[in-house]
Structures are given as structure tokens and as C-alpha cells.
Design goal:
mainly alpha, 277 residues, two-stranded antiparallel sheet, globular
Length: 277
């Protein structure tokens, strides 16, 4: 893939995240008043690292969830802009997949379909479609960051299109095959889907392999920069898990800080590795 083609994808990512950010801003005023009544209907708390250790001691606040969604979209928008600015003329096979990871957060805005459905009569089919799109974006993002780690092991740039196709097909198979209940939702505004334990295992395994891949690259390519990139991937995964699953105010700053710091480490060290190539 040429630099111009890759940069076009960056611009499309910026446009997508900006559109999702605009949606968040425009509908916020309408849906904030419905959160108070929705909180009385919560029967299932969200799951995740933060919820396991701290979140269970705090009450769920849907306004905090709304701000987490907005923060995720903001992260997507600004991170892709910064990556485009610093990597516009720098060839790095990994950075394309890092952008896919960042862009996946923009579609979290579709979680707002649930409170919006309390104001307008939105057919369950649309809610189901939105839930599947969210699920697709999440796993496409995870597999993209995983691929960034694998690419450091020697995948050639010319094979990027094939890799993207494999990620897309794999994610579609997962997304379309998962049963989703549009009548049940948790405290982070996620509709409940099946095979939760299996997907949690997939996420954990992908996270571990990604981090290990960067650490192996540090040894095989004799570059300590990849150690920091591996550490950044760990922080990014942890921040992602917290930001997407927390239902309390305290989870917001922790999640976005870890996610932003991890992404910053990945991008700055990749830029240093490829700057002089």
C-alpha cells in the first residue's frame, strides 16, 4: 500500500470520527434527561477490569457512561489527526493498524441509540444493527492492534490489503454469529450478547500475544523502542477495557489516561524507529 493510499485511509478515519463526535454533541441535550429514569431500571452491571476491582463499590451513573462514550470518540478524532500529522510522510507498516484501532472507538457513539430510543420509537432492528456494528468495530480494533504487533515480526507492506481482508472477514464471522438480546442492556449501555466468557478469553489472549509480539520484536530487531511499544499496547488495552465498560465517574479519567498514554508510547516510538528509514 502506497503512502497516498494509506493517508487517504487516515483522512477517512478523521471524517468518520468527526461525524460520530458531531452526533454525540447534537443528541446530548435531548438524551441527558432520560438517564435518571433509566438508572432505576438497571438490573445488570457492566463487566470489566475496573468493575471487578473498584467499580462494584460505586453506583452506576449513566451520565458518566455518556461522558465515557464522548471521551472515546474524542480520543479517536484527535489521535488519528495527530497520527496523520506525524506519519504523513513516514512509512510504517504498523501505524495503519494502530489507526484502525483508534478509529474503532468512534463507533462507540452508536451506544447512544439505547437512550435515544426512549425519546423516539426506534425499531429493535435498528438497535440490533447498531449493536452488531459496535461489536464489529471493537473486535476489528482489537485484531488491528494485534496485527500491528505481528507485523513487527516481518510481514511485508505489500501484503497489507490481504491482512485487512482477513481481519474484516474474521470479525464479520464473529459479529454476525453472536446472538444479541435487544431487550436487555447493562449499565454501560451495551446490549447483552452471547458467548461472553469466550469473547473475554479471546480478548485476553489477543492482548497477551500482542504485547509479547512487540517484546519479541525488541529482541529480534535489536531495538529497545519496541519494549516501550509493547508497554504502550498493554496500557492501551487496559485503558480500552476500562473506558468501554466503566459505569462510574472515576473510571473515566483512569481509562482515558491509560488509553492516551499507551497510544502515545506506541506512536512516538514507532515514529522514532522509522523516522530515518
Amino acid at each position: 500500500m502506497t503512502l497516498s493510499e494509506r493517508n487517504l485511509i487516515f483522512k477517512l478515519g478523521i471524517a468518520l470520527s468527526f461525524l460520530c463526535l458531531l452526533i454525540c454533541v447534537l443528541i446530548s441535550i435531548k438524551i441527558f434527561p432520560v438517564y435518571a429514569s433509566m438508572e432505576t431500571e438497571i438490573t445488570r452491571r457492566s463487566e470489566g477490569i475496573f468493575r471487578t476491582f473498584i467499580g462494584k463499590f460505586l453506583d452506576a451513573k449513566l451520565s458518566a457512561v455518556h461522558c465515557c462514550i464522548s471521551a472515546a470518540v474524542l480520543y479517536s478524532f484527535f489521535s488519528i489527526i495527530l497520527i496523520y500529522y506525524f506519519f504523513e510522510k513516514t512509512q510504517s507498516p504498523e501505524i495503519l493498524f494502530v489507526v484502525f484501532f483508534a478509529a474503532s472507538f468512534s463507533l462507540e457513539a452508536l451506544r447512544l441509540v439505547l437512550p435515544l430510543g426512549r425519546i423516539y420509537e426506534i425499531p429493535s432492528l435498528y438497535q440490533l444493527t447498531a449493536s452488531r456494528i459496535i461489536l464489529f468495530s471493537r473486535y476489528f480494533g482489537i485484531f488491528s492492534l494485534f496485527t500491528a504487533g505481528v507485523v513487527t515480526g516481518g510481514f511485508k507492506t505489500q501484503k497489507q490489503r490481504n491482512i485487512i481482508m482477513v481481519i474484516t472477514v474474521t470479525t464479520l464471522i464473529i459479529t454476525l454469529g453472536v446472538p444479541i438480546d435487544t431487550q436487555v442492556w447493562d449499565s454501560s449501555l451495551n446490549m447483552i450478547n452471547g458467548y461472553t466468557s469466550m469473547f473475554r478469553l479471546i480478548e485476553t489472549g489477543t492482548f497477551l500475544i500482542t504485547a509479547i509480539s512487540f517484546f519479541i520484536a525488541a529482541w529480534s530487531r535489536s531495538s529497545h523502542e519496541f519494549i516501550f511499544i509493547g508497554a504502550g499496547s498493554v496500557l492501551a488495552f487496559l485503558g480500552r477495557n476500562i473506558l468501554l465498560n466503566t459505569d462510574t465517574w472515576i473510571g473515566l479519567p483512569i481509562g482515558i489516561l491509560l488509553l492516551a498514554t499507551g497510544t502515545w508510547l506506541i506512536c512516538t516510538k514507532l515514529h522514532r524507529v522509522y523516522l530515518w528509514l
